[in-house]
Amino acid sequence: MDSQASVTYTIRQGDVEKFRVDPQSGIVRTRRALDFERQAQYVLIIGTLENTDVNDPLATTTLFVNVQVTKEKRFSKKKQLGSVC
Known about the structure:
mainly beta
């Protein structure tokens, strides 16, 4: 018998077409480039499959992803960066 509990992370709410979460580590990554001009901020609700009580405020965490645009002079192209608050 395994002495450590297994946790499987999932996106409970948010844009799952643009973001994914690694089920074992909980690391959130983008699936494709984000466009600041279309949407400057995304809100994701991250939870686990094991905790099904969505009314429990400790069962999930809110992740704010802010999209920023920077210009890279060397290539004269827009480079898009995201930050997590």
